[in-house]
């Protein structure tokens, strides 16, 4: 499946050390799970978390959800052991924090082999090197670490995320150039549904594939925001039909709702329908 068609609307962080949370995640309607061995796990629990997560993934039950394991950085006391453990876990992706350049991805790949790698994009150096990071042959996704990035940039909070726009844009450009998945950063106020919906809408408008989440209460909002709407699905069908009709007749130009429909619009329309079908397939499974 084209990565852009596989849904990544909701990507939920789950602590790798919490058996109850690991079990609950099996029933949540999320598209992907980040099993976290980094920020969500205290230093004295790192070793236990590694074993707890390995057992949970071996038990299975996560269905079609993409299983992503975020390890500690390789410059920490736990990073190498995490990487070696993930190599032998039932994981789909390993997520490396604070990636500053392609050499960081090389270092991880030397341990994890052919396992696909995602990069946490959360430092100024990472932003400046986004293109080279995205071009790594094992790199398949970016996750925006907006909290760490805000700290590093010394920004003030703004609901419109204006201080983040350059960084978000650089990462999106690099991801789209290489055909990567691009996941937006978290929204910290997990009880603020209206604020989350607004930020999801902004991320979707920018071109992100989905949003990282910190609480199950955020899942439905993200799933709705990053799925094709009924209006978008209807428009896609009408564009495809209008273009096909004109092609068959060999006359005129396809027009829908007063706007010309060209090949590029039809390609986008087909992507919309493919994503809608993929979401239905996930829900049915």
UniProtKB/TrEMBL annotation:
<keyword id="KW-0479">Metal-binding</keyword>
<dbReference type="GO" id="GO:0006107">
    <property type="term" value="P:oxaloacetate metabolic process"/>
</dbReference>
<dbReference type="InterPro" id="IPR040442">
    <property type="entry name" value="Pyrv_kinase-like_dom_sf"/>
</dbReference>
<keyword id="KW-0460">Magnesium</keyword>
<dbReference type="InterPro" id="IPR011206">
    <property type="entry name" value="Citrate_lyase_beta/mcl1/mcl2"/>
</dbReference>
<dbReference type="GO" id="GO:0008815">
    <property type="term" value="F:citrate (pro-3S)-lyase activity"/>
</dbReference>
<feature type="binding site">
    <location>
        <position position="148"/>
    </location>
    <ligand>
        <name>Mg(2+)</name>
    </ligand>
</feature>
<feature type="domain" description="HpcH/HpaI aldolase/citrate lyase">
    <location>
        <begin position="9"/>
        <end position="216"/>
    </location>
</feature>
<feature type="binding site">
    <location>
        <position position="70"/>
    </location>
    <ligand>
        <name>substrate</name>
    </ligand>
</feature>
<feature type="binding site">
    <location>
        <position position="122"/>
    </location>
    <ligand>
        <name>Mg(2+)</name>
    </ligand>
</feature>
<comment type="similarity">
    <text>Belongs to the HpcH/HpaI aldolase family.</text>
</comment>
<dbReference type="Pfam" id="PF03328">
    <property type="entry name" value="HpcH_HpaI"/>
</dbReference>
<keyword id="KW-0456">Lyase</keyword>
<dbReference type="InterPro" id="IPR015813">
    <property type="entry name" value="Pyrv/PenolPyrv_kinase-like_dom"/>
</dbReference>
<dbReference type="GO" id="GO:0008816">
    <property type="term" value="F:citryl-CoA lyase activity"/>
</dbReference>
<dbReference type="InterPro" id="IPR005000">
    <property type="entry name" value="Aldolase/citrate-lyase_domain"/>
</dbReference>
<feature type="binding site">
    <location>
        <position position="122"/>
    </location>
    <ligand>
        <name>substrate</name>
    </ligand>
</feature>
<protein>
    <submittedName>
        <fullName>Citrate lyase, beta subunit</fullName>
        <ecNumber>4.1.3.34</ecNumber>
        <ecNumber>4.1.3.6</ecNumber>
    </submittedName>
</protein>
<dbReference type="GO" id="GO:0000287">
    <property type="term" value="F:magnesium ion binding"/>
</dbReference>
């Amino acid at each position: 499946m084209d990565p852009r068609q596989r849904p990544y609307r909701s990507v939920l962080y789950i602590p790798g050390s919490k058996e109850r949370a690991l079990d609950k995640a099996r029933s949540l309607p999320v598209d992907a799970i980040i099993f976290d061995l980094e920020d969500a796990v205290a230093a004295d629990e790192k070793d236990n978390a590694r074993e707890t997560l390995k057992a949970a993934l071996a038990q299975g039950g996560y269905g079609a959800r993409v299983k992503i394991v975020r390890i500690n950085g390789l410059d920490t006391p736990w990073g190498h052991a995490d990487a070696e453990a993930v190599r032998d876990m039932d994981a789909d992706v390993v997520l490396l924090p604070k990636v500053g350049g392609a050499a960081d991805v090389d270092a991880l790949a030397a341990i994890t082999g052919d396992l696909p790698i995602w990069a946490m994009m959360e430092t100024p150096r990472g932003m400046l090197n986004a293109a080279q990071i995205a071009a790594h042959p094992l790199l398949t996704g970016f996750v925006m670490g907006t909290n760490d990035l805000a700290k590093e940039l010394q920004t003030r909070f703004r609901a419109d995320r204006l201080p983040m726009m350059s960084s978000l844009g650089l990462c999106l450009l690099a991801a789209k150039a290489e055909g990567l998945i691009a996941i937006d950063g978290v929204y910290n106020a997990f009880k603020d549904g209206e604020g989350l919906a607004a930020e999801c809408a902004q991320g979707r408008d920018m071109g992100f594939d989905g949003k990282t989440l910190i609480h199950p209460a955020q899942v439905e909002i993200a799933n709705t925001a990053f799925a094709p709407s009924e209006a978008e699905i209807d428009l896609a069908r009408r564009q495809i039909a209008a273009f096909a009709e004109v092609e068959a007749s060999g006359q005129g130009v396809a027009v829908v709702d007063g706007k010309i429909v060209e090949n590029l619009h039809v390609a986008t329309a087909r992507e919309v329908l493919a994503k809608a079908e993929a979401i239905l397939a996930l829900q049915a499974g």
